[in-house]
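lol so apparently i was supposed to do this last week
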Amino acid sequence: MSQPENDLPGIVLPADLAVTLERASLRLGRFAGRVRYLAETGSTNDVASRLAAAGAPEGTTVVAAAQTAGRGRIGRTWFSPPGAGLYFSFVLRPGAAAGRGQSVKAVHLMTLAIGVALAEALRLATGLSVNLKWPNDLLVGRRKLGGILAEAVDIQSASGYVVVGCGLNLRTAVYPPDVAARATSIEAELGRSVERGVVLAESLAAIEGRVADLEAERFGVILSRWLELSPSATGTRVRWVTADGERTGTTAGVDGDGALLLRTDRGVERVLAGDILWI
Ligand code: BTN
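anyway here it is w/ biotin bound
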């Protein structure tokens, strides 16, 4: 395992994670030997971001058994009680290749690419029919199994980085009421237990493959696979909120920047951020 770039307590991996990551190490690429573990932290995105700012290499990954300040998209809280989920964040450095204004595209395509990787990894590791909902949800049916939070820092410069955080519900916890109605977990869906190490190793191996696709600019491959895994991205009636108020439309796929396309009475509109609600 590589040495820490700065002080990070608790980097010794628990045996179950060490064994499965070692077994998968030839498939882990940039993640091999770069996974660190914390029993509890505020947010793994924040820890990974601090490590990246201190120069940590691509693939540096922080896994926590619990988060006390887990964050979701749009300022939401990500409920992260001990042992109920897999909470991990990793560092990528798309680098100077991304020019001015490219950070939004980098983050969006990254989110879609990592969504594809996680859906494929979970399908492989568990057999569950995991699907995706724009931009960052992993679902089984219409219930949320996990989410992705990609945060870009100074992406226009060579030292810039993106931290991608992934939260996967392993087993059902006593969720807050607003979450409980629309959440599920791998174990609830399967009716049996799963090894978190297998889920983590398969996720990182799949992420390695899809990040390689991004690096090789195989954007079409990622977008078409994302569309296959995202049935609600085409032909689904939805509503969303804009500065002008609530709008309704029908999903019509995504464009090359990862924006959601919506057919409305004004024509086809692009949505880059926000919440899309099924009607
Ligand atoms: C979402 O669905 O809104 C995104 C949820 C992302 C949660 C993960 S858990 C690991 C990482 N650390 C965080 O604070 N958030 C992400």
